[in-house]
Design brief:
alpha/beta; TIM Barrel; 2 domains; eight-stranded parallel β-barrel; 13 helices; about 40% helix; disordered C terminus
Amino acid sequence: MKTKKVTIHTLQQMKEQGEKITMLTAYDATFALLLDESQIDVLLIGDSLGMVVQGHATTLPVTLDEMIYHCRAVARGTRRAHIVGDMPFMSYQASIADAIDNAGRLIKEGGAHAVKLEGGAQHAELVQKLVAAGIPVMGHIGLTPQSVHQMGGFKIQGREDGAAEKLLEDALTLQAAGAYSIVLEGIPTSIAKTISEALAIPTIGIGAGPNCDGQVLVIYDMLGMNDGFKPRFVRTYEQLSTRIRTAVDSYSADVKSGAFPSEQESFFMDKASRPKTANATVSAIALAGGCGPGPLDAKDAKDAKDAKNPAGEDGAMYSSVDKD
């Protein structure tokens, strides 16, 4: 198992040695830990979370604060993988100064190792300044989801006259500006091959064919968690939507029937400290001349509190071994 941290230099070495780069999206610590343990090279906190986590129709509503929140969660679950945070819509388009501040927040507050931004040559100056500020930049050209309205939908790019040449120009310009890698999304295989061969830096494909230096998918798509979304470029390696529903149905049935929780899944008091039965308690009260519970003195109050929480305030009962 590889334990050395993946950096931008690692990815460059992989490109030079012909080793394919694996990249998946992650949005929380649990998935990050699983993917990191599975030796995925790059974890992308994508603004795709707006669609697969938040339920929006596009990535446009995602805010910078939300991206920072999810970056932080992924960073907590990651030890080896390279972490890339998406710059959300309008966090870098308004001005270079704002873009540098916002990218800095993804690194400083979110724990990302690099940022990804969509667009080509028009962002060359921004890329230069980010890199000069010590912020590694991954580019993203082709089908750029933040431009969905301008493109008229999520459509394959590069088929129009001159479009292939423009994509190559954008890629070369981003490389010259200092980008360490570029995502190629939703473009014909032949164009992705030409760009990948022309660049010295790694390309990561999604819907761009097999000739890129690496591949990325949205983790929920790859695991088959959305039955209604099966685009051509996604290979589904599991059908978790079915398996999750089956597991939830079983849980619900067990709760309804009383089969869950069982004795093995329950906690018990020590025999010596078990309270008296209800009948014994009533008899004791009668013998004492009382007709029911009265005001508690300080000691009674403490005893009652201890009886309700025998493990103490820290809830240690959940980590102790039952003696019954």
